[in-house]
Amino acid sequence: MSKTWLIVVGIYLVLMAIAGFSVATMPNWHAWIDIIVGIISLIVGFMDKGKKGSAA
Q1: Distance between CA atoms of residues 15 and 26, nearest Å
Q2: Which UniProt keywords are listed (predicted)?
């Protein structure tokens, strides 16, 4: 479940940042932060293996 949400939030943030650069409705620093956080959440979402059961 968290993997799906991370990917969705990452895509949303990257798209919002691209729109912020082109439409210029937000400051550039805010768009850069959105891109960085979006890319990090996409990386974590794609690399997340999920919860593994323990033997104990």
Answers
A1: 13
A2: Membrane, Transmembrane, Transmembrane helix
Are the CB atoms for 13 and 37 separated by under 8 Å? yes
Residue 42 resides in a domain: yes
Note the pLDDT tens digit of each residue in 13-25. Answer: 999 888 888 876 7
Predicted structure pTM score: 0.75
52 belongs to a structural domain: no
Residues 6/44, Cβ–Cβ less than 8 Å: yes
Structural domains counted in the chain = 1
pLDDT value of residue 11: 92
**Residue 56 domain-assigned (yes or no):** no
